[in-house]
Amino acid sequence: MRELLKSVKEKLASKYYKNGTSKNIKKFKPRLKARIRKNKQILNKKVDNFFHWIKGARLVELKECNTDEDPVRPELDIIFRRSHGRKIYGVKYMGEIHAVMCFAYTNHIPKNVEELDKFSQDAFLQSTLRGQNVGQIAIAYTVWSKKKGGGKLIVKEVYKKIKKSNHLNRLVTLSPLTDMATKFHTKNGAKLLQINETTQNFEYQVEKK
What we know:
By secondary structure, the chain is of the alpha+beta class.
Protein backbone atom coordinates (compact mmCIF):
# COMPACT_ATOMS: atom_id res chain seq x y z
CA MET A 1 0.00 0.00 0.00
CA ARG A 2 2.87 2.40 0.81
CA GLU A 3 4.32 1.90 -2.66
CA LEU A 4 0.94 2.61 -4.25
CA LEU A 5 0.43 5.80 -2.23
CA LYS A 6 3.97 6.90 -3.08
CA SER A 7 3.20 6.40 -6.77
CA VAL A 8 0.00 8.46 -6.47
CA LYS A 9 1.92 11.23 -4.72
CA GLU A 10 4.59 11.32 -7.44
CA LYS A 11 1.99 11.48 -10.22
CA LEU A 12 0.11 14.30 -8.54
CA ALA A 13 3.33 16.21 -7.88
CA SER A 14 4.31 15.85 -11.52
CA LYS A 15 0.91 17.18 -12.58
CA TYR A 16 1.10 20.31 -10.46
CA TYR A 17 4.74 21.09 -11.21
CA LYS A 18 4.04 20.69 -14.90
CA ASN A 19 1.37 23.40 -14.71
CA GLY A 20 4.06 25.52 -13.05
CA THR A 21 2.06 28.49 -11.76
CA SER A 22 2.72 29.82 -8.26
CA LYS A 23 -1.01 29.63 -7.57
CA ASN A 24 -1.10 25.92 -8.30
CA ILE A 25 2.06 25.28 -6.29
CA LYS A 26 0.56 27.00 -3.25
CA LYS A 27 -2.51 24.78 -3.53
CA PHE A 28 -0.40 21.69 -4.12
CA LYS A 29 0.11 20.45 -0.54
CA PRO A 30 -3.47 20.57 0.78
CA ARG A 31 -4.91 19.15 -2.45
CA LEU A 32 -2.27 16.43 -2.55
CA LYS A 33 -3.00 15.44 1.05
CA ALA A 34 -6.73 15.32 0.36
CA ARG A 35 -6.21 13.13 -2.73
CA ILE A 36 -3.87 10.75 -0.88
CA ARG A 37 -6.30 10.52 2.03
CA LYS A 38 -9.14 9.66 -0.34
CA ASN A 39 -7.10 7.00 -2.16
CA LYS A 40 -6.03 5.50 1.16
CA GLN A 41 -9.65 5.23 2.27
CA ILE A 42 -10.59 3.50 -1.00
CA LEU A 43 -7.70 1.04 -0.68
CA ASN A 44 -8.50 0.28 2.95
CA LYS A 45 -12.11 -0.44 2.01
CA LYS A 46 -11.05 -2.83 -0.76
CA VAL A 47 -8.65 -4.64 1.56
CA ASP A 48 -11.33 -4.94 4.26
CA ASN A 49 -13.85 -6.33 1.76
CA PHE A 50 -11.28 -8.84 0.47
CA PHE A 51 -10.38 -10.19 3.90
CA HIS A 52 -14.02 -10.20 4.98
CA TRP A 53 -15.00 -12.68 2.26
CA ILE A 54 -11.85 -14.76 2.81
CA LYS A 55 -12.61 -15.12 6.52
CA GLY A 56 -16.29 -15.83 5.94
CA ALA A 57 -15.86 -18.47 3.21
CA ARG A 58 -16.00 -22.20 3.90
CA LEU A 59 -15.21 -25.41 2.05
CA VAL A 60 -18.24 -27.49 1.04
CA GLU A 61 -18.80 -30.65 -0.97
CA LEU A 62 -20.87 -30.07 -4.10
CA LYS A 63 -23.24 -32.41 -5.91
CA GLU A 64 -22.74 -30.51 -9.14
CA CYS A 65 -20.94 -27.60 -10.77
CA ASN A 66 -21.09 -25.69 -14.03
CA THR A 67 -18.60 -27.61 -16.16
CA ASP A 68 -18.68 -24.86 -18.81
CA GLU A 69 -16.80 -22.68 -16.32
CA ASP A 70 -14.00 -25.25 -16.04
CA PRO A 71 -11.00 -23.79 -17.95
CA VAL A 72 -9.01 -27.03 -17.76
CA ARG A 73 -11.32 -29.97 -18.45
CA PRO A 74 -14.81 -28.77 -19.43
CA GLU A 75 -15.41 -32.02 -21.34
CA LEU A 76 -15.69 -34.04 -18.11
CA ASP A 77 -19.34 -34.24 -17.11
CA ILE A 78 -20.87 -34.39 -13.64
CA ILE A 79 -21.24 -38.18 -13.84
CA PHE A 80 -17.48 -38.53 -14.25
CA ARG A 81 -16.75 -36.05 -11.47
CA ARG A 82 -19.02 -37.88 -9.01
CA SER A 83 -18.37 -41.53 -9.93
CA HIS A 84 -16.08 -44.03 -8.19
CA GLY A 85 -15.60 -41.93 -5.08
CA ARG A 86 -14.63 -38.76 -6.94
CA LYS A 87 -15.68 -35.50 -5.35
CA ILE A 88 -16.29 -31.85 -6.13
CA TYR A 89 -15.44 -29.18 -3.55
CA GLY A 90 -16.25 -25.51 -3.57
CA VAL A 91 -15.55 -22.38 -1.55
CA LYS A 92 -18.89 -20.96 -0.48
CA TYR A 93 -19.54 -17.41 0.68
CA MET A 94 -22.94 -15.77 1.25
CA GLY A 95 -24.73 -18.56 -0.59
CA GLU A 96 -22.53 -18.46 -3.69
CA ILE A 97 -19.69 -20.70 -4.89
CA HIS A 98 -16.58 -18.67 -5.70
CA ALA A 99 -14.02 -21.42 -6.42
CA VAL A 100 -14.17 -25.10 -7.39
CA MET A 101 -11.72 -28.00 -7.23
CA CYS A 102 -12.41 -31.54 -8.45
CA PHE A 103 -10.75 -34.66 -7.03
CA ALA A 104 -10.21 -38.32 -7.71
CA TYR A 105 -8.74 -40.68 -5.11
CA THR A 106 -6.11 -43.17 -6.22
CA ASN A 107 -3.18 -45.28 -5.06
CA HIS A 108 -1.01 -44.28 -8.02
CA ILE A 109 -0.19 -40.98 -9.73
CA PRO A 110 -1.90 -40.63 -13.14
CA LYS A 111 -0.23 -39.05 -16.18
CA ASN A 112 -3.45 -38.37 -18.07
CA VAL A 113 -7.24 -38.44 -17.68
CA GLU A 114 -7.45 -42.06 -18.88
CA GLU A 115 -5.13 -43.20 -16.10
CA LEU A 116 -6.98 -40.96 -13.65
CA ASP A 117 -10.20 -42.74 -14.54
CA LYS A 118 -8.65 -46.22 -14.31
CA PHE A 119 -6.69 -45.63 -11.09
CA SER A 120 -9.66 -44.09 -9.30
CA GLN A 121 -11.91 -46.97 -10.36
CA ASP A 122 -9.33 -49.47 -9.09
CA ALA A 123 -8.99 -47.65 -5.75
CA PHE A 124 -12.78 -47.47 -5.40
CA LEU A 125 -13.14 -51.21 -6.09
CA GLN A 126 -10.40 -52.08 -3.59
CA SER A 127 -12.04 -49.92 -0.93
CA THR A 128 -15.39 -51.61 -1.53
CA LEU A 129 -13.92 -55.10 -1.23
CA ARG A 130 -11.86 -54.28 1.85
CA GLY A 131 -14.30 -51.94 3.54
CA GLN A 132 -11.79 -49.09 3.52
CA ASN A 133 -11.74 -45.46 2.44
CA VAL A 134 -10.98 -44.75 -1.22
CA GLY A 135 -7.30 -44.34 -2.10
CA GLN A 136 -4.34 -42.77 -0.36
CA ILE A 137 -3.63 -40.01 -2.89
CA ALA A 138 -5.94 -37.06 -3.58
CA ILE A 139 -5.59 -36.06 -7.24
CA ALA A 140 -6.74 -32.51 -7.97
CA TYR A 141 -7.39 -32.58 -11.70
CA THR A 142 -9.02 -29.19 -12.16
CA VAL A 143 -9.50 -25.94 -10.26
CA TRP A 144 -10.99 -22.56 -11.07
CA SER A 145 -11.98 -19.38 -9.27
CA LYS A 146 -14.65 -16.77 -9.89
CA LYS A 147 -13.50 -14.35 -7.20
CA LYS A 148 -10.09 -12.84 -6.43
CA GLY A 149 -8.28 -14.99 -3.89
CA GLY A 150 -10.60 -17.96 -4.40
CA GLY A 151 -8.03 -20.24 -6.02
CA LYS A 152 -5.48 -19.78 -3.27
CA LEU A 153 -8.16 -20.16 -0.60
CA ILE A 154 -9.54 -23.45 -1.91
CA VAL A 155 -6.02 -24.92 -2.11
CA LYS A 156 -5.45 -23.91 1.50
CA GLU A 157 -8.78 -25.34 2.71
CA VAL A 158 -8.39 -28.61 0.80
CA TYR A 159 -4.86 -28.98 2.16
CA LYS A 160 -6.17 -28.65 5.72
CA LYS A 161 -8.88 -31.22 5.01
CA ILE A 162 -6.41 -33.76 3.64
CA LYS A 163 -4.00 -33.13 6.51
CA LYS A 164 -6.76 -34.13 8.94
CA SER A 165 -7.70 -37.22 6.90
CA ASN A 166 -6.89 -40.63 8.34
CA HIS A 167 -6.38 -42.30 4.96
CA LEU A 168 -5.05 -39.64 2.55
CA ASN A 169 -1.35 -38.88 2.76
CA ARG A 170 -0.60 -37.08 -0.53
CA LEU A 171 -2.07 -34.16 -2.49
CA VAL A 172 -1.04 -34.27 -6.15
CA THR A 173 -2.33 -32.43 -9.21
CA LEU A 174 -2.96 -33.53 -12.77
CA SER A 175 -2.31 -30.19 -14.44
CA PRO A 176 -2.11 -29.02 -18.05
CA LEU A 177 1.24 -28.04 -19.57
CA THR A 178 0.67 -24.30 -19.27
CA ASP A 179 2.57 -21.44 -17.66
CA MET A 180 -0.60 -20.45 -15.83
CA ALA A 181 -0.87 -23.85 -14.12
CA THR A 182 2.83 -23.81 -13.25
CA LYS A 183 2.70 -20.32 -11.74
CA PHE A 184 -0.51 -21.05 -9.82
CA HIS A 185 0.71 -24.21 -8.11
CA THR A 186 4.30 -23.11 -7.43
CA LYS A 187 3.03 -19.80 -6.04
CA ASN A 188 0.79 -21.75 -3.66
CA GLY A 189 3.64 -23.92 -2.40
CA ALA A 190 3.57 -27.01 -4.62
CA LYS A 191 6.65 -28.61 -6.14
CA LEU A 192 6.91 -30.07 -9.62
CA LEU A 193 6.82 -33.85 -9.39
CA GLN A 194 7.06 -34.84 -13.05
CA ILE A 195 6.33 -33.64 -16.58
CA ASN A 196 4.36 -36.02 -18.78
CA GLU A 197 3.50 -36.06 -22.48
CA THR A 198 0.37 -33.89 -22.14
CA THR A 199 0.24 -33.04 -18.42
CA GLN A 200 2.38 -32.28 -15.39
CA ASN A 201 2.07 -33.32 -11.75
CA PHE A 202 2.66 -30.99 -8.82
CA GLU A 203 2.66 -32.10 -5.21
CA TYR A 204 1.66 -30.22 -2.08
CA GLN A 205 3.67 -31.78 0.73
CA VAL A 206 1.25 -33.00 3.39
CA GLU A 207 2.82 -32.98 6.83
CA LYS A 208 0.92 -35.26 9.17
CA LYS A 209 1.09 -34.60 12.90
